[in-house]
Design brief:
Strand content: under 5%
Structural class: mainly alpha
Shape: elongated
Number of strands: 0
Helix content: 55-70%
Number of helices: 5
Order of helices and strands: HHHHH
Oligomer: single chain
Distance between the termini: 45 Å
Length: 164
C-alpha cells in the first residue's frame, strides 16, 4: 500500500514557515523580515508576468524549427511555479522558488519528470483519435423539437421502452 506524504507536507509547511519567520526575525529584525517577504512577493509577481510571454515565444520558436517543445514547456512551467513559490509569503517557499530559477535545477527536475510526462506534438497520433464518420443519428422533425421539454413527444422512438 502506497502512503502519500502530501497531506503531511501541506500541514507541516505553514508550521515550518512560521518557524522560519521567528528565526529570521530574531536575527535581522521584524521590519527587515517583512521587507524580505514583500521583496520576494514583488519579484515573483514580476517574474510571472514576464515569463508568460517569454515561454510562448520559446515554444513557438522550437515548433517552427521542427524540434520537440516539451523541454521549453517544462522549463516555462517550472519558472511559473517558481514565481508562485516566490509570491507565497514565507522563506522556505521562497528558497524553493529561487532554486527553481536556477537552470541546472530545472534541468535535473526535467530529467526526473520526463519519464512521467507525455507531450503530444502532433494531432491524430498518441492518444488523439480521428473523428469517426458514418455514425450519424438521423431524427425526423417529430422526433425532436426545441422548446418546452416538460411535454416530450411520447411517440418518439427515443422515448419508447422495449418490452424485452
Amino acid at each position: 500500500m502506497r502512503i502519500s506524504f502530501l497531506p503531511l507536507l501541506i500541514l507541516a509547511l505553514p508550521l515550518a514557515e512560521i518557524a522560519g519567520f521567528v528565526v529570521v526575525g530574531s536575527k535581522i529584525g521584524a521590519l527587515a523580515t517583512i521587507g524580505l517577504v514583500l521583496a520576494s512577493t514583488i519579484a515573483g509577481s514580476l517574474l510571472i508576468r514576464h515569463q508568460g510571454f517569454g515561454v510562448m515565444t520559446k515554444v513557438r520558436t522550437e515548433m517552427d524549427a521542427g524540434r520537440d517543445p516539451s523541454a521549453q514547456l517544462a522549463h516555462g512551467a517550472m519558472m511559473v511555479f517558481a514565481a508562485i513559490l516566490l509570491i507565497i509569503p514565507g522563506f522556505i517557499t521562497s528558497i524553493l522558488g529561487l532554486l527553481l530559477l536556477l537552470p541546472p535545477v530545472r534541468d535535473m527536475a526535467w530529467r526526473h519528470l520526463k519519464k512521467r510526462v507525455a507531450v503530444v506534438t502532433e494531432f491524430g497520433t498518441a492518444g488523439f483519435r480521428p473523428r469517426q464518420r458514418g455514425k450519424t443519428i438521423d431524427l425526423n422533425d417529430d422526433d425532436y423539437k426545441r422548446g418546452n421539454n416538460n411535454n416530450p413527444n411520447a411517440s418518439s422512438p427515443w422515448r419508447q421502452i422495449s418490452d424485452e
